[in-house]
Amino acid sequence: MDTKEVNSVNTPLIVSDGCCVHFGNIPALEGVNFSISRGKKVAVVGPNGGGKSTLFNALVGLVPLTEGSLKIDGKSPNEVKGKVSYVPQKDLINWNFPLSVKQVVEMGITTRKVSSLFNSKKTNDKIKKALQDVGLEEKINDNIKSLSGGQLQRVLIARALAQDSEILLLDEAFSAVDIGAQEDIMQLINSINLDGKTILIATHDVNNLEEKFDEVLCLNKHCCAYGDPSEVLTPEVIEEMYGSHTEQFMNKSHFRTEENNSND
Q: Does residue 71 contact residue 15 with C-beta atoms inside 8 Å?
């Protein structure tokens, strides 16, 4: 790897400097600071109302900042629309329309470049490739209502992949799917990450993050901690996010490890 490549990897891709978002007089994010390097796989954790979805919406330019800055490759989110793909929570999407899997994935392409509509072969090839990547090419003509929760999540990821973006935001990717589907989605995310993409995943589950993610961003309207999960997910940080009832969020074995380390 030459010097230029090393600098590219080490240069922060996403930088939040005192990021604040308010809805009227209600703060959603307050003075959030973090810096994420290119190619990282990051868990974004925190309570309901802690600002995870607000941060993702700010990263794609859907909500304005009231103070501070949020930069992607040195530019504002509105200047880098093509760099970021966002998979929102499934319950925020209206699934009442009789859409096929192909149509859902195609939305990811046409929202980025209208000109793609005029090159149907290129569009179809891109859709097929995205569905191949998530293992659902055989479902291309199926109605989305016939899919399982895990399959639907993979279709949404395929829609994001079809945009050829550098950053993938997944909001509650593991919610409302069984353990087997969660493992399948995590394997898919790992393969996407190996392809060089930077991935941020909002999740409520703070257990075993050190086995799945490079870094963790702990949010409760402000940044409680950011860094290696094995280092920053201390009982104090968990309590800062969720309050005093930390045992319902962390495996007891993790706390025993923390306690043993503190007694060394």
A: yes
Structure tokens at 16: 């939040």
DSSP, residue by residue, 103-136 = HHHHHHHHTT-GGGGG-HHHHHHHHHHHHHHTT-
- Strand ordering across the sheet containing 67-72: 26-37, 12-23, 67-72
Q: Are 167 and 84 in contact (CB under 8 A)?
A: yes
What is d(CA 48, CA 241) in angstroms, rounded to the nearest whole number? 10
**Closest among 171, 2, 27, 174 to 85, alpha carbons compared:** 171
Six-digit token string for 70: 């949020």
Spatial separation of the C-alpha atoms in residues 77 and 62, rounded to whole Å = 9
Q: Residue 24 region, left (φ>0) first, then alpha (ψ -120 to 50), else beta?
A: left
Residue with the two structure tokens 């050829």: 164
Give the residue range(s) of CATH 3.40.50.300 domains in the chain: 3-233
How do residues 158-197 score in pLDDT, each as one tens digit?
999 998 889 999 998 877 677 888 888 888 898 888 888 9
**Would you say 241 and 46 are in contact if contact means Cβ atoms under 8 Å apart?**
yes
pTM of the model: 0.83
Pick the CATH number of 3-233 from 3.40.50.300, 3.30.1360.120, 3.40.50.720, 3.30.70.920: 3.40.50.300
Sign, CA torsion 126/43/261/258: negative
